[in-house]
Amino acid sequence: MTFDELGRRQWGLITWQQLLTFMTAQQARDEIAGGRLIVVRRGIYRIAGVVEQWRHRPMAAYLAAGIGAASGTCAGRLLGMQSVPGQRVELVVPRPHVVRLSGVKVRTSNFLPSHHVDCLDALAVTTPARTICDLSATLSRPTVARILRSAVRLDLTSYDAVWRVREEVRARGRRRTTVIDELFEGLIVGAEPGDSDGEYKLLEWIAGAGLPLPKQQLWVVTAGGRYCLDLGYREEKIDLEWDSDLHERTPDDVEYDAARDVELELSGWFVMRASRLTKKYDFLRRLRSALERRSL
User: Fold this and answer.
1) Residue 193 DSSP class
2) Global pTM?
3) Lowest mean pLDDT: which of 56-70, 124-138, 172-186?
């Protein structure tokens, strides 16, 4: 592997030992003194011209440790998971190895099999399923629920994959799976995470009220076009829409939604919109009334 290839694979970072495969120790010191290699942490350097990024921090920590994988909230952010808090660099290393790095949270684990680890170029990172299980030991149930749904929504993992990891870590003695257990007990049978947490919130309200569940992502054809409903009852012709990020909606969005609602109503559909301002009681009262009237 050439110097440039190694640099690309490690996002512009290189270790002292790797430098010595391409040059002498004196040449390496000259490169550092001349500013062509920038110290990131002891024994780890960034190639000049490579723009500093947050992801360099976990890569540098991993290269310095030489073992383990990025984990926890750090892995969640690297994997592109939504709702993951913080920017702390975290590593998990298998026992009995002990790693101490300044500014890095290092956790040891007696169970880190290879199928629980993926690679982002040269950086080892726990899989999305393992990451979620690890996060469940430190984050609140609502936060883990949002992370889990978004990860499934983005096809980063699946409910089955997360449960399999839960079973594996539980079998190896981990007792802190309460949050994952509660989340899976509360999953709505047959429901998908939807396009947003708002849609899933409506499903939770509906299921909790004992009302029949609507179909998710229901396609409807009208004289004016073909529309995908967030949630819908086809027989009763009831459309449930979640309006997220109301403050970010453009005039075009407002115009499109208004025209869409008119087309659906002209085809006999009753459109109910909800947002973060909607009260649960009011929403369920209106939905229950609509279902009763349209089931006659």
Assistant:
1) -
2) 0.81
3) 172-186
